[in-house]
Write a structure and sequence with these properties.
The protein is an alpha+beta fold. The chain has a single domain (about 1-130), classed as Alpha-D-Glucose-1,6-Bisphosphate, Chain A, domain 4, CATH 3.30.530.20. The protein is built from 3 helices and 8 strands. The chain has helices at about 15-20, 25-30, 105-130, and strands at about 1-5, 10, 35-40, 45-50, 55-65, 70-75, 80-90, 95-100. Strands 1, 2, 3, 4, 5, 6, 7 and 8 form an 8-stranded antiparallel β-sheet that branches. The longest helix is centred in the last third of the chain and has 23 residues, at about 105-130. The relative contact order is 0.26. The model has no long low-confidence stretch (mean pLDDT about 95). It comes from Aquimarina aggregata. Keywords: Glycosyltransferase, Transferase. InterPro entries: START-like_dom_sf (IPR023393). This is Orotate phosphoribosyltransferase.
């Protein structure tokens, strides 16, 4: 299952957005209002829970300075990645697009597609407000 957020313009350079997204504690600021729990575990791992959803632990999997941050599920039970692609545009601005890629059976994909799309759209909107 592959889902994408709309591309948002951010009033920060790609370097600034990259620095923000590589500090896992900053993801708390991007979470939807339905966030029930957020906990930084290490400098590269955090746990969060949204209302009506199980707790999820995300790890930073890989980073490409100033252009990409890849987070992935710490558990093999729900294997997925969340990738932020960051591009410099004009004077001090950049764009960011989130891509969710997960391997789920058809029934699970059907159940989680809408909540995950809403989640990445909210993250993307909140990145745009930085």
């Amino acid at each position: 299952m592959n889902l994408e957020s709309p591309t948002v313009t951010v009033n920060k350079t790609a370097e600034e957005v990259f620095e923000f997204l590589t500090k896992v504690e900053n993801f708390e600021q991007l979470m939807p209002e339905s966030k029930q729990k957020f906990e930084k575990i290490t400098d590269s791992r955090f746990l969060f829970q949204l209302k009506g959803m199980p707790e999820l632990v995300l790890d930073q999997k890989e980073n490409t300075p100033s252009s990409q941050v890849v987070l992935g599920a710490a558990s093999d039970k729900l294997p997925f990645t969340l990738t932020a692609d960051i591009v410099n545009t004009e004077d001090g601005k950049s764009t960011t697009k989130l891509t969710f890629d997960g391997q789920f059976n058809a029934m699970m994909a059907m159940m989680i597609k809408t909540p995950i799309q809403n989640f990445i759209n909210t993250l993307s909107e909140n990145i745009g407000k930085l």
